[in-house]
Amino acid sequence: MSLFDFFFPKKPPSASIAKERLQLVLAHERADRDSPDFLPRMQKELLAVVAKYIAIKDDMLRVSLGKEGNTSVLEINVEMPSAAKPVKRAANA
Amino acid sequence: MSKVIVVTSGKGGVGKTTTSAAFAAGLALRGHKTVVIDFDVGLRNLDLVMGCERRVVFDFINVINGDANLQQALIRDKRIENLYIFPTSQTRDKEALKREGVEKVMELLRRDFEYIVCDSPAGIEHGALTALYHADSAIIVTNPEVSSVRDSDRIIGILAAKSRRAERREKPVEEHLLLTRYSPERVKKGEMLSVEDVTEILSVPLLGVIPESATVLKASNTGMPVILDPESPAGRAYEDAVARFVGEQREMRFVMPERKSLLRGWFGRAAS
After folding, report:
1. Among A8, A63, B16, B109, which is 20 to 30 Å from A86 by CA?
2. A68 min Cα distance to partner chain B (Å)
3. Neighbouring C-beta atoms of residue A92, cutoff 10 Å
4. pTM of the entire structure?
5. Does B150 touch chain A (CB under 8 A)?
6. Do A52 and A27 touch, CB atoms closer than 8 A?
């Protein structure tokens, strides 16, 4: 890097920023597109079940479908709150 | 054998109707019997771009509902032999394009026409899905701009999942990328995504590049497909794209900044 470039750094042309942003967002959207459409529903139902017993927030349970070699892998990630508290249940439950 | 071509993009305002008009005219000029259909129910515009707005009597919905037959609704172009326009209705009922009705109309058209060009509405709702459903080929109209490229990618996904060919597990819809409103000068300055950028991102074979040109507005002002304007660079680029579509080899034009001679620099400005 020359001294000139150091003092007057060139901004990347806006077209290359556009390309980078597009590639990133499309990679995400394509992954979503290829997943079966029952996944969001299943995630919601699983969340409802877990939330009955442990106080977790909506974004703490993630469901995804991936591939490892020839087998499809259904991955369910549940993040536990640091001090997992059981949900208080009504006395008569 | 007839071929159904959908002109689609997801995003609005990128040049679907301009492309449908130019493409249908181009195919007809080459001697193919062609009909161009407006699928944008409620926002009819193909008639204006084709310059036949005062000749619309019956429309697509009339035919679907059995109020008119196909022959009554088809408008024969006065300039180009073999070219017919099938206007849509201005009804506000977006679901008026009933699936069975459209199916029947497409079947009838397939008997009579070599090429059936479907001008899709913007969006991914009922009208757009109906327009692409019957397609054998798709022309994906894209501007070198982030939102247009993203929406094109979305519509490519929908073509692969929701078309009749996809439903029946037949050979997938043949995809063609048409890059419109391209400005080589701005690409050179790094202000605009290049042909290479867009084809790399979308990975769809390139059918043509249509340069940004004032003649496109001039053509729609007067209701003439831009391909009929011999002075228009966009018209020439459409001509090339149509030729490639039917299998001819044509070199890409209008992708490099124009080299202006000194004389053209001085005198050419007034003319362009």
Report:
1. A63
2. 23
3. 4
4. 0.82
5. yes
6. no
